């Protein structure tokens, strides 16, 4: 517990027990509140995914990876690429999608606090947007904006759409649909692991913004 307190996960406080003497107790911090299931920005699925033995184990094989010919430590340990492993292990990829969705909930709260970012954007494409948690939040906030989520076909299959939110199956590592790139003011959200890079392209301005 002292390590967790030092790391800011918990804090200490003085508490009254059955007797009048004060005892040291532990309380949640702003960081650990993000792990509560009833929190608006519950990040527990993201933490569980990052601590999954499937992702943690390759770190213990860095020596073999350096001496071998595999492209990544993940491939050196599991004998296949990250995406190939996901195709063969539905439970793992489902947990990963859930973790991405929980991370997107937190990013959605940040985006709502800075809505001016999207003032001049008519359409938005969330590349690698998973199940569309972030794009759906933006679409609800901007009914005039046409939002599209691009992710693997099995990820976006049968997801509910709306008038201004569509899902397109594809592989962002191979190509991004051609027509995505030719709107006059199109926002491009590129999801890299658990981070986000926001760019919007304009025909009249060479401008980009990041969140």
UniProtKB/TrEMBL annotation:
GO terms for molecular function: O-methyltransferase activity. PANTHER family: O-METHYLTRANSFERASE. Residues 59-177 form the O-methyltransferase C-terminal domain. The lineage of its organism: Eukaryota, Viridiplantae, Streptophyta, Embryophyta, Tracheophyta. One of its GO terms (biological process) is methylation. It comes from Populus davidiana. Keywords: Methyltransferase, S-adenosyl-L-methionine, Transferase. InterPro entries: COMT-like (IPR016461), COMT_C (IPR001077), SAM-dependent_MTases_sf (IPR029063), WH-like_DNA-bd_sf (IPR036388). This is O-methyltransferase C-terminal domain-containing protein.
């Amino acid at each position: 517990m002292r390590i967790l307190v030092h790391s800011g996960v918990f804090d200490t406080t003085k508490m009254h027990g059955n007797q009048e003497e004060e005892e040291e107790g532990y309380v949640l911090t702003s960081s650990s509140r993000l792990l509560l299931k009833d929190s608006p920005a519950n990040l527990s699925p993201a933490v569980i995914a990052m601590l999954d033995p499937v992702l943690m184990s390759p770190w213990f094989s860095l020596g073999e990876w350096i001496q071998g010919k595999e492209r990544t430590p993940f491939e050196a340990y599991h004998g296949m690429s990250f995406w190939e492993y996901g195709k063969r292990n539905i439970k793992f990829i489902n947990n990963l999608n859930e973790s991405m969705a929980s991370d997107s909930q937190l990013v959605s709260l940040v985006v709502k606090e800075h809505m001016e970012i999207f003032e001049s954007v008519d359409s938005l494409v969330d590349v690698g947007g998973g199940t569309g948690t972030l794009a759906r939040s933006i679409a609800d906030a901007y009914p005039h904006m046409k939002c599209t989520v691009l992710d693997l076909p099995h990820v976006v299959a049968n997801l509910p759409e709306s008038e201004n939110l569509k899902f397109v199956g594809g592989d962002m590592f191979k190509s991004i649909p051609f027509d995505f790139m030719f709107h006059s003011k199109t926002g491009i959200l590129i999801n890299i692991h658990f981070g986000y890079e926001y760019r919007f392209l304009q025909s009249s301005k060479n401008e980009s913004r990041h969140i």
